[in-house]
Write a structure and sequence with these properties.
Layout lengths: L12 H8 L2 H14 L15 H32 L5 E2 L20 H6 L2 E2 L8 H6 L3 H7 L2 H12 L7 H16 L3 H7 L2 H15 L5 H28 L2 H10 L3 H15 L26
Antiparallel strand pairs: 1-2
Helix pairs in contact: 1-3, 2-3, 3-11, 7-8, 8-9, 8-10, 9-11, 10-13, 11-12
């Protein structure tokens, strides 16, 4: 952006409109879901008189409203950057969110050549809404959420963590991420549940998924996706309730189900000889449940 020799050749209006179009829908969905399922209800004594299925279900629309709110905010922030032409690089530079171009591209020598290039704004992309909702694994969900900050955390916190284990490095990163958000206990309870989920899914996946038939692997991925979403629903409650008492009260009302499920999955994975999770992506493991061409622009 600062070194663009022909800034007038960089498109902004069409990329802005293409990026902005889902925001009104997400905003309406946020208003509707937060009205029908207000967070304050969870802080009332009457809520805990509801049946267990109702208490379990409630975290789903709460996390849905949470996602819609952030989708709107981050899309608006991206649109502000796009309107200024900030973060535009030629597609050939293969820019990454937060990190910028990964390949060197010579600057265009004339306005005509600059106009003939295809540009994208991946550098300032902060949210992949489709990836967040439909990726299979907990670890992939982290990559699609707050993407520029995730890049920074990976480069400057994860890589310098005082441990070599992927799970311990992730725990260190989540601890500092919680501190970055603030001092509310709910942040720490939520963020520090993520490493347990990472360890559980990594061990169980390496122990079982490869032994299944192609049809069995597809069924596994759907179940994995469902449990991933429920894990994020569960962790979101700590993030929005904030206080230690409110978070533990809600989690206790649903019997700390995700914690116990993750511990059971971790134990089963260890018993079956599953390897430790690593940063390396298995070639046979899809990152989402639908074809890449269906992903948002």
């Amino acid at each position: 952006w600062l070194e663009q020799p022909f800034p007038g050749a960089v498109p902004s209006l069409r990329p802005l409109l293409r990026r902005a179009w889902p925001a009104p829908l997400f905003g309406l969905l946020f208003l509707l879901s937060s009205h029908l399922f207000p967070l304050e209800a969870v802080r009332e004594d009457a809520f805990y008189a509801r049946p267990l299925p109702a208490r379990l279900f409630y975290m789903i629309p709460v996390f849905f409203a949470f996602r819609m709110r952030f989708y709107v905010a981050w899309i608006a922030a991206e649109c502000g950057c796009i309107a200024a032409g900030f973060g535009a690089y030629p597609v050939a530079a293969k820019a990454r969110a937060g990190g910028g171009p990964t390949l060197q591209c010579p600057p265009p020598s004339s306005p005509e050549k600059a106009a003939s290039l295809e540009y994208d704004y991946e550098t300032i992309r902060n949210i992949d809404c489709y990836g967040t909702d439909f990726c299979v694994r907990v670890r992939d969900g982290m990559r699609y959420w707050n993407m520029t900050v995730q890049w920074w955390l990976a480069q400057y916190i994860y890589k310098s963590a005082p441990a070599r284990s992927y799970v311990l490095r992730s725990a260190w990163t989540m601890l500092l991420s919680a501190y970055w958000h603030g001092l509310h206990p709910g942040y720490y309870l939520s963020f520090l549940t993520i490493p347990l989920c990472l360890a559980a899914e990594g061990r169980l996946e390496s122990a079982l998924r490869g032994r299944l038939s192609p049809g069995g692997q597809k069924a596994w991925d759907w179940v994995h996706w469902f449990l991933k979403m429920r894990a994020y629903d569960y962790m979101c409650m700590g993030f929005v309730l904030l206080s230690l008492a409110d978070t533990l009260r809600y989690w206790a009302s649903i019997y700390f189900c995700i914690h116990f499920l993750a511990l059971a999955a971790l134990g089963l994975g260890l018993a079956l000889g599953g390897g430790s999770p690593s940063r390396r992506k298995a070639a046979s493991q899809p990152t989402s449940l639908a074809p890449e061409k269906l992903r948002e622009e």
